[in-house]
UniProtKB/TrEMBL annotation:
InterPro entries: YdhG-like. This is YdeI family protein. It comes from the Bacteria. Residues 20-110 form the YdhG-like domain. Pfam families: DUF1801, OmdA.
Length: 199
């Protein structure tokens, strides 16, 4: 018996008339191809999990629906989409989906990837270029031992946040304000984004 979630039923019922058959078709195909799949809601959208891992997700908007496999490029054999449109673009009818055999084969491949135990490859992170300490910020820090001590105690990422904030200012007046604000906050022991830390 399929492991369905009533929240997915409610999601489908609330969507536009064009989207409902697309979502139902995707749902049925996923359950046919992977009987052990379970439904849940992730990021307020229906998702299909298998053995505790995300297999795929679907969504619907005002004028289109989407389907996306979690390990997209490995499942479809194509480059990962750069937009949030899933691997099949903007779906406006069932005809926009691959045929049932192809769709079910992709679901089975996604399940097999989970069964294999191999983790999704992480994207290669290229190191960011180092930002040199600007003279105006260095001078301001030198005039405030408390701010200087805080800055020196920061890990590289927190130092970088202040350096980017100051160096990205476009106008000299804005930059001067940011330098003064940075020194004030650091003198109080605050990180650049301290306002959002306890939200």
């Amino acid at each position: 018996m399929p492991k369905t979630d009533p929240r997915v039923d409610a999601f489908i019922e609330k969507k536009a008339a064009f989207a409902q058959p697309i979502l139902r078709h995707i749902r049925a195909a996923v359950h046919r191809a992977c009987p052990d799949v379970e439904e849940t809601m992730k990021w307020s959208m229906p998702s299909f999990t298998y053995k505790g891992q995300i297999l795929a997700g679907m969504a619907a908007f005002k004028e289109h629906a989407t389907l996306g496999f979690w390990r997209s490029s490995e499942v479809t054999g194509t480059k990962e989409p750069e937009s949030g449109m899933g691997q099949f673009g903007r779906l406006t009818s069932i005809a926009d989906l691959p045929d049932d055999a192809a769709l079910e084969a992709m679901v089975k491949k996604a399940a097999a990837l989970i069964d294999s135990g191999e983790k999704k490859p992480r994207p290669v992170k290229h190191p960011k270029a180092e930002i040199a300490m600007p003279d105006d910020l260095a001078d301001a820090l030198a005039g405030s031992p408390a701010a200087q001590a805080t800055y020196e105690g920061f890990p590289p990422g927190q130092k970088r946040e202040y350096l980017e904030w100051v160096t990205e200012a476009k106008r000299p007046e804005t930059r001067a304000k940011r330098v003064a604000q940075a020194v004030e906050w650091m003198a109080e022991g605050k990180r650049r984004n301290w306002k959002y830390e306890n939200c």
